[in-house]
Amino acid sequence: IGDPPAAIRALRDTYLNRSMSVPGDLQSARNLRQDSIARFGEVSMQLPDPDRSWLRTGEALVLDVEIITSVPTDDVVVAIEVHDSEGRRLIGANSDRSGAPLPRSVDGRIQLRLGLDEVSLLGGIYHIDLGLHDRDVAISYDHREQAFSFTVENRGVNTGVVDMPISFDWQVKA
């Protein structure tokens, strides 16, 4: 198949195409880079109700993300993107732009709780990508494509992708 990262990506894609859970050590072929100063460790997603496998529009979603660094650094940025089922990016954010840079001189393991505080999406299946890169976005340390998927159940009357409050204020004039 080729070099080891390509083989790992091919195996990971096979898992994803068969709707199977991808083992953690195969989720990112970039984990094979021995010179990378940062990589993802364990990552998990928590839904608001453990008895449901879906969200309601407006509920929160939490990701627990472990980052492992091999040398003291503060030049690691966590990036997140949410995509719809057609692959369109709905939002992209990162820890630096959001005012939450990595604590200075981190060496070893650090835990991040990443909150999507109000998922204002209507019914559908959505995917989350996670990435680690330097502040200049010149070096990508690790990337997990479709690290998680989640379903939103729309119990309202609005249609589309995004939910936003809309009001109708009638004024009858004689």
Q: Quick one: overall form? A: elongated
Indicate the low-confidence ranges by residue numbers. Answer: 26-34
What string, H for helix and E for strand, traces the elements in order? HEEEEEEEE
The neighbouring-strand order within the major sheet is 2-8-7-4-5
Spatial gap, N to C terminus = 76 Å
- Beta-strand portion reads 35-45%
**Roughly how many Å is the radius of gyration?**
19 Å
Helicity range of the residues? Answer: under 10%
Q: Helical stretch count?
A: 1
Mean pLDDT: 83
Multimer state? single chain
Largest sheet: 5 strands, mixed
Give the helix/strand class.
Answer: mainly beta
Secondary structure tally: strands:
8
SSE order and pairing:
Blueprint: H1 4-17, E1 38-46, E2 55-56, E3 61-73, E4 77-84, E5 89-94, E6 106-116, E7 124-133, E8 140-153
Parallel strand pairs: 2-8
Antiparallel strand pairs: 1-3, 3-6, 4-5, 4-7, 7-8
What does this structure look like?
- With 174 residues, the chain is mostly beta strands.
- Helices cover 8% and strands 42% of the residues.
- It has a five-stranded mixed beta sheet, with no helix packed on it. A three-stranded antiparallel beta sheet has the order 1-3-6, with no helix packed on it.
- β4 (77-84) and β5 (89-94) form a beta hairpin.
- The longest helix is centred in the first third of the chain and has 14 residues, at 4-17.
- It is elongated, with a radius of gyration of 19 Å.
- The protein starts with a helix and ends in a 21-residue tail after the last strand.
- Mean pLDDT is 83; it is low at 26-34.
Tags for this entry?
174 residues; mainly beta; five-stranded mixed sheet; three-stranded antiparallel sheet; 8 strands; 42% strand
